[in-house]
Design goal:
Layout: H1 3-10, H2 44-52, E1 70-80, H3 113-121, H4 151-171, E2 184-188, H5 192-205, E3 216-218, H6 232-251, H7 253-266, H8 270-275, H9 278-287, E4 294-295, E5 298-299, H10 302-322, H11 324-348, E6 356-361, H12 363-372, E7 386-394, E8 397-407, E9 410-411, H13 420-425, E10 431-432, H14 433-446, H15 455-460
Parallel strand pairs: 1-6, 2-3, 2-6
Antiparallel strand pairs: 1-7, 4-5, 7-8, 8-9, 8-10
Helix pairs in contact: 4-5, 6-11, 7-10, 11-12, 11-14
């Protein structure tokens, strides 16, 4: 079966219905299983298409929803970069031919794409923290380079930015019309795909922004841990988690058989094929409707893809059960969460700097944060995933502040470990800000067990 046939067969599986009052009936679909709209058994191709996040109609979202007496104070956005070319190649096969130049009238289309290209071409003198100033501001190769953002990836984040503009600027007036550089905080890793994704979202959010007001900081670590990256216990959790992954793979005889079949097709040892991480390249074929590769020995096909993708889903399920990844996540996500609540605390004091923060990151950034927050049902971060922290002030009680957490437009606040119980006890529509502060300052370490009460102790505790 070719990729297009599979896509067509799946059309009936993708829910598009809308509930009353214009609120999407999928408001919980993306994070919590919905037996009505989702396949009864996890379908690997369905999951892969959600991961592709192919741009279509503008999605409805729950960002910015609050009772009228609440005032939006600050917003903190964590994104995964948009659709990219693979980082790995299936050995001895032709690379998928994807064009990474931006063409305004080519699909996927966005009404701001042409203006975005024009604006990026004027930003060549932009002042960013080194080494970001040496990166191209938008994708521009006729044949994509490894890991390069595609036009799909740009459009995904133009859509994200426009959606956030409509909610946070037009509706809630988060920034004044004459906003200043110090009201934004922008940070990205040193990959072109993350910088370009951040710029695409920013352009959708602040069209035709003044280049002199934009400054991206460089983050060397995918965990955004800044000066707090040395954490031996976190690395021990990761090693144990990788061992768990390895043992699960060894148990899967169907997976080994599939890798063996694919290795014969491309005429390399099975070990070499597995090391080439074929799922990364196959997802690109699926997302871009390009046939899987063939050789004189046969073709890689959808059945091969389903076996590998199904194993990935099983791995995620076991990962949640075994809790090793949770230990890694609590320590891995702490620095960025600590930085975020520091920014929020300054906003509660009436400070007007850094009201909108954007971290342009990777799946390996968002996954630990989601896990640490207790969002165990969250899907693996799709291309252009967004995780948002909103800080609100109660106008009737100005000293009270609340938070909302949203993942891909879904309000997941009361799925978080720090606010599940509050939701059961209180009718308030949001979570008290102090719950999040207590979680980051204390409860994250309690969840690790042991007697650690701070990040440094938890990272260096003996006898783990």
């Amino acid at each position: 079966m070719d990729v297009l046939t599979a896509l067509l067969l799946l059309v009936h599986l993708i829910p598009v219905s809308t509930a009353k009052n214009g609120v999407s009936s999928k408001s919980r679909k993306r994070i919590m299983p919905d037996p009505v709209t989702e396949p009864p058994v996890t379908d690997p191709v369905y999951e892969a298409l959600l991961y592709c996040n192919i741009p279509s109609v503008a999605e409805r979202s729950m960002e910015g929803h609050a009772p009228h007496h609440f005032k939006l104070v600050s917003v903190h956005v964590f994104i995964r970069h948009g659709d990219r070319y693979p980082l790995y190649v299936i050995p001895k096969t032709k690379r998928p031919e994807i064009d990474c130049t931006l063409v305004a009238n080519r699909k996927p289309y966005h009404p701001k794409l042409e203006a975005f290209i024009s604006h990026m071409s004027k930003g060549s003198g932009a002042s960013f923290e080194s080494p970001l100033n040496s990166l191209p501001l938008y994708p521009n190769h006729p044949l994509c380079e490894m890991g390069e953002l595609t036009q799909t990836g740009v459009v995904q984040h133009l859509q994200n930015g426009q959606l956030l503009r409509d909610i946070y600027l037009k509706k809630h007036k988060l920034l004044p019309n004459d906003w200043s550089a110090d009201q934004l905080y922008l940070e990205t890793t040193g990959k072109s795909r993350t910088l370009q994704s951040g710029l695409a979202l920013l352009y959708g959010f602040l069209p035709d922004f003044d280049w002199k007001k934009i400054y991206f900081r460089h983050q060397p670590s995918a965990l955004f841990c800044s000066g707090s990256c040395y954490c031996p216990v976190r690395n021990q959790y990761l090693e144990k988690e990788q061992r768990r992954q390895y043992l699960l793979r060894l148990k899967n005889s169907q997976l080994e058989k599939t890798y063996g079949e694919m290795a014969k097709i491309v005429d390399v040892p099975t070990k070499q094929l597995r090391a080439a991480n074929p799922i990364d390249s196959m997802l690109c074929h699926l997302c871009h409707n390009v046939s899987f590769p063939c050789t004189r020995n046969g073709c890689v096909d959808m059945e091969h893809f389903k076996v590998i993708k199904t194993h990935q889903i099983e791995d995620e399920r076991e990962r949640r059960e075994k809790k090793l990844y949770l230990g890694y996540s609590l320590l891995g996500a702490h620095p960025i969460l600590n930085q975020t609540i520091g920014r929020m605390q300054r906003a509660t004091e009436g400070r007007k700097e850094e009201l909108f923060a954007l971290y342009s990151a990777h799946d390996v950034t968002l996954s630990p944060v989601l896990s640490a927050l207790g969002l165990s049902e969250a899907r693996f971060p799709r291309f252009a995933a967004r995780l948002i922290f909103e800080l609100w002030q109660d106008r009737e009680k100005p000293n009270e502040h609340s938070v909302r957490i949203l993942y891909n437009g879904v309000d997941v606040t009361f799925h978080t470990s720090f606010c599940q119980d509050h939701h059961k006890r209180s009718p308030k529509p949001m979570c008290p800000f102090e719950n999040l502060v207590r979680f980051v300052k204390r409860d994250m370490f309690v969840a690790l067990g042991g007697s650690s009460t701070n990040y440094d102790d938890a990272c260096h505790r003996e006898g783990f």
